[in-house]
Amino acid sequence: MSKNQRCTLAVAMLLLVSCKSDITEVCDEGNKAVITVYNNSLCTPDVSVNGDEIASDLGILDEVSVQVDAGSHEVTTTLSLFTLCTALDWEVEVACGDTVLLTFE
What we know:
There is one protein chain. By secondary structure, the chain is an alpha+beta fold. It is 15% helix and 43% strand. The protein has one helix spanning 3-18; strands at 23-25, 33-39, 46-49, 52-55, 63-68, 70-78, 89-94, 99-104. The N and C termini lie far apart (57 Å).
């Protein structure tokens, strides 16, 4: 094995060890799970799924949806510094074709 091949293999192994993936099955297009967050509060949270922001300042009585593969997903909300609302976090386990509704209150 050449030096370049060893370096490439070492980098690939580091990426595999450092990246946490809770995906248990890659779903076919049209059969992905759907996670929807509904804002039933007077606050406007930012919403992230697995660390990727899917909504910034989600409006009052508004919702946002994202399609994901089967497995465990972390859904988080963050708020501005001065607010009466409390940020929420959910851990959601989904299968292909599932639909999940989370309500921010």
